[in-house]
């Protein structure tokens, strides 16, 4: 779960930081989404990726039948709020409806079944880790919003080639920052990183 949260954080923040300038260079500034839409989309993306290990565990353990009602509840909430919120708020309403559907269905049922029936621990374990990682993600997104006018945070380049170069530098910076944070705060992430470094070392020894 820690690597998925790391991946979702890095790519989600890259989307917030680099997406508007890419759209501006590609099709014009008139198509750039506002920050509220970007943040909602990134938040929904973060949740979808960060919960992947829960869905995988349910499928692997054959427990998905126990949450079969969750997609139905999610669809009903999503559809009902779609007709209420979208006519008034547009894309923001659509995103809020989608988030509410997840919040009152899979966000409750999936961890409850997975952590109780598969891992035999309290679902609180999932929620503590999820909200701590979401808070870190939200704090970094807020910093991007505050300093969004700075070219250091969001590149402002006239050509696609210049944007690619600037975006690559910023993406590497995001990866570096989150690698340092997760290495310092997540034991699971450190263990995963240690296992990852052992594989190439083993191949080098065998080749020698």
Word description of this protein:
This protein is mainly alpha-helical and about 210 residues long. Helix content is about 80%, strand content about 0%. The chain has helices at about 1-25, 35-50, 50-60, 70-90, 90-105, 105-120, 125-145, 160-185, 185-205. Helix 1 (about 1-25) packs parallel to helix 7 (about 125-145), helix 2 packs parallel to helix 5 and helix 2 (about 35-50) runs antiparallel to helix 7 (about 125-145). The two termini are about 35 Å apart.
Summarize the SSE layout with pairings.
Elements: H1 2-26, H2 35-50, H3 52-60, H4 69-89, H5 91-103, H6 106-118, H7 124-146, H8 160-185, H9 187-207
Helix pairs in contact: 1-2, 1-7, 1-8, 2-5, 2-7, 3-6, 4-5, 8-9
Report how far the terminal alpha carbons are from each other.
35 Å
How many helices? The count is 9
**Main beta sheet:** none
Instruction: Find the structural class using helix and strand composition.
Output: mainly alpha
Question: Number of DSSP strands?
Answer: 0
Helix content: over 70%
Which residue ranges are poorly predicted, with pLDDT under 50 across at least 5 consecutive positions?
Answer: 202-208
Shape: flat
* Percent of residues in beta strands: under 5%
Pattern of helices and strands: HHHHHHHHH
Cα-atom radius of gyration: 20 Å
Mean pLDDT: 84
TL;DR?
The chain has 208 residues and is mainly α. The chain has 9 helices and no strands.
Which key features would you list for this structure?
disordered C terminus, 208 residues, mainly alpha
């Amino acid at each position: 779960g820690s690597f998925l949260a790391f991946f979702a954080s890095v790519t989600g923040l890259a989307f917030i930081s680099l997406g508007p300038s890419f759209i501006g260079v590609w099709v014009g500034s008139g198509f750039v989404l506002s920050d509220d839409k970007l943040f909602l989309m990134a938040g929904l993306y973060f949740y979808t990726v960060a919960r992947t290990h829960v869905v995988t565990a349910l499928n692997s353990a054959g427990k998905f039948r126990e949450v079969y009602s969750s997609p139905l509840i999610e669809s009903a909430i999503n559809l009902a709020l779609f007709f209420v919120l979208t006519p008034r708020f547009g894309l923001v309403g659509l995103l809020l409806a989608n988030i509410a559907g997840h919040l009152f269905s899979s966000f409750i049922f999936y961890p409850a079944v997975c952590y109780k029936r598969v891992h035999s621990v309290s679902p609180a374990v999932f929620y503590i880790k999820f909200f701590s990682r979401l808070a870190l993600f939200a704090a970094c997104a807020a910093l991007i919003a505050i300093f969004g006018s700075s070219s250091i945070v969001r590149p402002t380049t006239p050509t696609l080639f210049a944007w690619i170069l600037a975006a690559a530098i910023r993406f590497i910076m995001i990866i570096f920052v989150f690698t340092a944070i997760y290495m310092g705060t997540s034991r699971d992430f450190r263990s995963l990183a240690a296992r990852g470094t052992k594989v190439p070392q083993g191949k080098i020894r065998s080749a020698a």
